[in-house]
Write a structure and sequence with these properties.
about 230 residues, 10 strands, about 45% helix
Amino acid sequence: MTWSGFRPSDDACGFGFNIPGNMFAAVELAHIAEIASEVFNDGALATAANNLRREIENGIRNHGIVTDPVAGDIYAYEVDGLGNYLLMDDANVPSLLSIPLLGWCDRHDPVYVATRAFLLTDRNPYYHRGSVAVGQGSPHTPLGTIWPIGLAVEGLTALTDCRKVAILRTMTATDAGTKRMHESLHKDDPAVFTRSWFAWADAIFCELVLDAAGLRTYTRKTISAIAEF
């Protein structure tokens, strides 16, 4: 796997090998290999990208899956490759909750299902339950704060439309009257938030709206039809 000193949040890693970051790298290396082969006709680059992808995937399989006594086999957030690991998630993407969106696995994948079940409980130290919202936060922001990005990711990976709509209602009800999504909001008081303007959160909220309305699939089909035409 690839080692990093920092998480997607820019906070320091607890252990050097961030699992969702490595998953994202593996997915994109497959895309690099495809472009190298089909667009640039560069077999050497395609082979190098695929070899590195396989190394990362093997590292994740061998070190990134741990057995929790309650949840079973789940993905760790970080590992050191020596048997030590960290069970948590960070609402910044790439996150463990987001890996079906990244293309690492299907949302029905058994290890992902078990990991998700663990992450959306109080056993995840950055999962917060409040009077106005329940969801994932981040060590990047004050304890007890929930990230709209995390809520949107939970909605985008949900299996039912009812859950997606419920999360959308939570998000629109906790914008503190600003008509914008924030970086984070306090679980008991949406008027206490960080970053009054955070375009990433606004954008992923729009992704969830499109998904709940059934338009993200339609858009992909439309783009495909245009490309064929």
